[in-house]
Structure formats: C-alpha cells, structure tokens
Amino acid sequence: MTVPVIELRDIKKSFGPVDVLKGVDLKAYAGKVTALVGDNGAGKSTLIKGLSGVQPYDSGTVLFEGKEVHVHDPRQAGALGIEVVYQDLALCENLDIVQNMFLGREETDQGTLDESNMELQATKALQSLSVRTVKSVRQKVSSLSGGQRQTVAIARSVLRNAKLVILDEPTAALGVAQTEQVLNLVRRLADSGVAVIIISHNLVDVFKVCDDIAVLYLGRMVAQIETKKTNQADVVGYITGTKTYGGK
Amino acid sequence: MSSPTPPTELMPNLEPQAISSGHEGGLRDQVNAYFSRLKNGEMGALPAVGALLVLGVLFASLSPFFLTEINFANLFVQAAQLTTLAVALVFVILLAEIDLSAGVTAGVAMDVFYLTTNAGIGWIPALIIALVVGAAIGYILGFFVAKVGVPSFVITLAFFLGLQGVALILLGDGGLFRVEVPEVKAIMNSNIPVAGGWILLAVMVAVSAALGLYDRARRTRKGLVNRPITLLIAKTGVLAIIGGVIVYILNLNRSQGINPIAGVPIVIPIVVAIIFIGTFVLDRTTFGRHLYAVGGNPEAARRAGIKVNRIRITAFIITSTLAVIAGLFHVSRIGVVEAAAGRTIVLSGVAAAVVGGVSLFGGRGRLVHAAIGAMVISIIDNGLGLLGLSAGISFVVTGTVLALAATVDAVSRKRSGGSVMRS
C-alpha cells in the first residue's frame, strides 16, 4: 500500500469538559477522494480545523507523507500543501478571478504586480481542471454563480500546488447542474494526483465521487471503507449509530 | 497542474477550452464589453462626468463670467484642496471605514507647521514635521479601529472633537495667525511658466502611454492577447486633448490689470502627481491589491494570509498624511492658520468621493473618481457663487447631488450582485 498523503492517529481534542474527538484515525491517499461524513456534532469541523492549523489538536499524531508534522497555524498548513476550501467561499467579490486566485500570494515583477504572469497561470490552472463554465478570467467574482465561485476556490488550490485539498460542504448551496460541475471538478482534481477530503451531508454526492468513506460518530471514527464495498443504507447506519462496521 | 487530466466517466468528452481574459476582440467588442459592464452597474465615474458636463454647460449659459480665463483658473485652485482631501479619504473609504477627523487633523498639523516655522525652523523640515504629526494621528486612529475594534465613525468623531481642542490650545483663543512662508504662499498663488505647463503635460501623457505600452509588452511576452492598440491610442489622445485644453486656457493671460498673469498654478501638477502616484500604488502594488481585498471581504483577505490590521492602520496613516497636504493648500490660499480650520470641509471630502463613484460599502472606487467628484462639488460652489445665489442654495444643491450619488451607488451595488450571495 502506498504512503497516505495525510494520516491521523489517535487524534484527541476537547473543549473544556467536552471530548469532541476521542482518538480518531484517518488516512487520505493521493489521487483519491475521501469523504468525511457524520451527523452534526460528530466532530467533522473540529477534525478539519486541526488539519488546517486553525485549532490544533490536544494529542495524537499527524503524519504528512509519512513524516510526523505539527500544524499550529494556517501558514504552516499552507507551506505543507494543505488547502482548505471553506463553505463560505472566502473570495472577494470586488476582485476578478485572477486577483482572487492569487490573493495573498501575488506575483510581482520589479516591485509591481505581474498581472500577465498571474493571468497566464490562473488560466492554465482552470484549463488543467477542464473548467468550461467560466467565460473570462477577468470577470469580477460578484458576477459569478455559486458553482463558478466554488470552481474558482478549488482552482486556487491547484494554483498553490496543494497536495491535500479539504472541501467543506462544496455542494451545499448549489443547484443540480452546478453540483454536477463541482463534483466533476473534484474528480479531476483527485485524478491530477491530489488527495481530496470532502465533508458532505449529501450521500448521493459522496457515492458519486468518493473513493473512500470515513464515518465519524460522536468523536470516533467508526468506519473507513472503500465506497465500492458498501452502500448508502449501511453508511446511514454508521452515521446514526444504528449499525457498527463489522469489518473493523 | 501542467499535465492534462484524463477524462472521467462523469464528464466524458473534454476538449481543451479557451478561457478569455476580456482582452480579446476588436474595438467594437471592447466597446460592447464596456456597455455591458455599465448595464451591470459598474458605472464608475460616468455619472459624475455627466454631472460635470451638465453643470458646466448650465453655468456657462447662465453666467457670462463662468467661462472667463480667470474663473477657470480660480475653479481649479479652489478645487485643489477638496480634491486632495477627497483623494486622501478614498484610502479609508475603500475599507468601508470613514475618517471624520481628516480635516481637523490637517488643521492641527498646519498649526504645528505655523509654530515651528515661527520658531525659526525652515519650511521644509517644518512641513516634514507636520506630515509626521498627520501620520501619527493616522496611526492612532488605525490602531483604535484595527486592534481595539472601535468603529471608525466613533473614534474619528472623538478625534474630530478632541483635535479642535488641541488646535485651540496650540494657537490660543481666537484670531488668525499669518504664515510668512513665501514658498507655501506660492503653491496656490503662483504659476508655472507657460512653457513649463506644456512640458509637464507632455511628461504626463508620455508616462501614461509608456505604462500602457509596458503592460502590452509584458502580455505579449507571456503570449497573452492584447486589447486593440487603437484603444490605448484613443485613451492617450483623450488625455492629451483634455490636458491640452486645460493647459492652453490656463496659459492665456487672465489678468485684469497691467501685469499679465498666465500659466498653470503650481498646485495643479502637485495634485496630479498625488493622484498618479496614489493610483499607481492602488493598481500595481501588492499593498493596493490587499487594500481592495480587505475592503471587499475582510474575512477572505484574512484567510488568504493578508495582514488585515496592518492594511487598515496603513490606510488611516495615508489618509491623515495626505489630508495634511490638503491643509497645506488651504493655508497657502488664505495665508493664515486658525483654530477652526478643517471643521467643515471633511464632509465635503466624503461627499466628493461618493459623488465621484467611490463606494462607501468599501472595495470599489478609484482616486480619479474622487477627484472628479471634487470637481463637481467645486463647480456647484463656484457657479452658484457667480450667479449671486446664497450659500444656502449651494448647500441644498450639493446635498441633492450627494443624495443622488449615494442612490446610484446603492442601486448599482444591488444590480452588480454585491448584496446577493454575500457570505
């Protein structure tokens, strides 16, 4: 078996008396889409916040490409190649697509912004994902639909050569066609060799696009299974706690 | 990201798809694109330019004095202070903040200038001290807004009141204090030699065209499409013509006495340089990009790793420092400092920025918009004054124009989708 891009071992996190994560294990592999599912309060967000450095874990081991790392702030996560695409997209509507994709990491040439270089790279990143819904890279984000905005946010992680991309509910606010487009995009992102973790409540989406499904239940990882080897009814059972994963 | 990804079963037929950059197509496509942007509510300074033309024609037809050479020069000189203040305020308005104390900050800094020059210090070091005073006040304002979290409206209102007191303490009760610095007096009251005006205009047009050509060369080097060159030629031409007309008229003899008065007032190239450098910083530097980002969505900027607080504090420092230059122009024109200086003009400065198309919601607007807005307000003051109408009417008209501009801002923001889908 190949070395996972990210491996979590026995992760624990508590807020005061409340134990949110009670020893969680998780693996995500390059080229694979791993779904992180679980009911509200299962600890999904807490798990992700630890990975992105926003809220470090109390204890446990984080292995990045087999090596132990300590992620204490978002910059460290970014330096490793971990990118999080948040549910509320974190784009600036008054800026255009190129400007948003390079926000905070602008390329300069002799002290001034190198617009042509940024435009070229942004276009290439979008093309590498076969994005066809965006007309012009110089469109303002305010003129984009929800799906197009997701597209820009995901393409931004490509631009940053991310090795692990975490998507928080990428399709929650989208219509049918746009959901389809974003799922296609996620698939292509993984096919290009990136490890992808998707948080989602939508099991239809999960089964459509994910290779692995990891189920959190009250702070414990109750199952991490290949999508092929399970079905929706079982996963719902794991999520709600009415079934336990037999193969564990 | 370089290798093309294999097709998946979800999206079977993928051929590479060209994504445009808005630079494609001929002149006609570019013009169409401009109109479609207008329709989407990105009107920029267009309403203000329209207002400027309408008001110009109106006053020209109502007052025979409006189009005289001397009034033309007066208009520009009178507008210089307001323009500079409005440009200064744009930096904080882009962050959806406000600085109500900018006017009195300038007043206090110029009081310090008066006291230091009176104490025998040269005018250049004294001016530097005044600018540092402005920058320091800006830093304190920015600190309260960014680090402490006091709303800018409240903290700058507090400074608006407090600094008036400081001005009184510095100057003592009442009275006007003459500033005896010929160089300062010259800014608003002396002119560049006739040839100098033309040379400066030529430099300005050349720099502007060179920047345009430089951008095109960079794009070509990267293999990107350029807009038709006719567009750049047209832009440069319009700049040259407008500038040429202004310089030509200002170079005519406008004296009503024996000694001829002609030439571009010294203040005008200073204001143009401020706008030019400021625009360069906003459009072409990382700081400028981050300023717009923080104004558009502070949370997104923070997550992108931008030091939001540093940007906020810097914006307040720039506003206060540039405001001091506006104060310098004021002192140059009236020749005195007084404790009450700068109390009323700051609201006109905000009005000018908004009239010109700078959005109070943050993230949208350019320095030249504020300058055009300042011209609109100045032309109202000037024209109504010439018609012998009372100051009351002038305020009513200015207020109406501002209300109109704010309405245009709110409506266009709605139309461009600014309020929808906001996370």
Give a structural overview.
The complex is a heterodimer of chains A (248) and B (423). Chain A is of the alpha/beta class and 248 residues long. Helix content of chain A is 32%, strand content 26%. Chain A has a domain at 6-91 and 162-240: P-loop containing nucleotide triphosphate hydrolases (Rossmann fold, 3-Layer(aba) Sandwich), CATH 3.40.50. Chain A has helices at 44-51, 74-80, 97-101, 115-128, 146-159, 176-191, 203-209, 232-240; strands at 6-15, 18-28, 33-37, 59-64, 67-68, 82-85, 108-109, 112-113, 164-168, 195-199, 212-217, 220-226. Chain A has a six-stranded mixed sheet with strand order 6-9-10-3-11-12, with helices on both faces. A four-stranded antiparallel sheet of chain A has the order 2-1-4-5, covered by helices on one side. In chain A, a hairpin with a 2-residue loop joins strand 1 (6-15) and strand 2. Chain B has 423 residues and is mainly α. Chain B has two domains: 50-190 and 267-409, Orthogonal Bundle (ABC transporter involved in vitamin B12 uptake, BtuC); 192-264. Chain B is built from 16 helices and two strands. Chain B has helices at residues 27-39, 46-62, 69-93, 102-118, 123-148, 152-171, 182-189, 194-221, 229-251, 267-284, 286-296, 298-303, 308-334, 345-356, 367-386, 391-415; strands spanning 177-178, 336-337. Chains A and B meet through helix 2, strand 7, strand 8, helix 4 and helix 5 of A and helix 8, helix 11 and helix 12 of B. Chain B: Pfam families: BPD_transp_2.
